[in-house]
Amino acid sequence: MTTIHPTLRNLVTDERGNVLMTFGLTTLLAVAAVGGAIDFGRASKEKDRLQAALDAAVVGGMTKYRESNDMEEAKTRAIGLFNAQ
Fold first, then answer.
1. What pLDDT does 3 receive?
2. pTM across the whole model
3. CA–CA distance from 70 to each of 76, 77, 80 (Å)?
4. 70 is in which domain, residue-wise?
5. I want to staple 60 with a disulfide (CB 3.0 to 4.6 A). Which of 1, 32, 33, 81 is the partner?
6. How many domains does the chain have?
C-alpha cells in the first residue's frame, strides 16, 4: 500500500476555508443564472416586438391588397410598415 505525503494528507483532510470556496463557487453559479435569465428576458421581449411588427405589416399589406388588388403595392406597403417599426 502506498503512503501519502503528510503535506498532501493535510490538504485533503483540512476543512478550514471550505465555506469560502463553496460560497465562491455558488456565487459564480448564481451570477451565471441571473445573467442567463436577463438574456432570456431580453430575447423574449425582442421576439414579441418583432412579432408585433410582422403582424402589423401583414395586416397593412392585406388591407392595401383588398383596396387595390395589386400584390406589388401590398408587398411595398407591408415592407414599409415593417421597416417603420
1. 74
2. 0.63
3. 10, 11, 16
4. 41-85
5. 81
6. 1
